[in-house]
Amino acid sequence: MINKINAENAWVINGEAIATRKFDGTAVAIIDGELFKRFDAKKGRSIPENAISCQEADAITGHHPHWVKCDPSKSSDKFFFEGFDRLKTKTDGTYELCGPKVQGNPEKLESHFLIKHGSELLDFVSLDFDNLESFLSENDIEGIVFHHISDSRMCKLRKSDFGIKRLELEVV
């Protein structure tokens, strides 16, 4: 762990960010009222036909995320639609699919839900290293996403960045 701010993300510490909770699931998007799931085209994976690129490919890691339309006839998309169907309004934007069959259910949910990115605001008196580490140690969340107040930049800070593990589900 290094207690040093990456110059590229200094805007967070300079008060140009809104902090939100990072949920632990899988990313989805609603685009023109239709449901899409995240697909990463790294490591030589072929990009599916009609996939929508989310950003340019990372030259170092090869990370190249896309949105791929979910198909209600595919069993692999069943839980995506369970979350989608629970939404009262299907507003375009990005969401996190969380629930019993997603990533081992670290959010401890009994059903599948789509949680809008940025929907749970966090408030910090201080953004210094020790305060952020304490917050992540004391709260059972995956992390924090900082959103720039005037553009689309984001910065993610996870528990794992501090070597902190999430609480394990209790098996009864």
TrEMBL record:
Name of this chain's protein: RNA ligase domain-containing protein
Pfam families the record matches: RLIG1
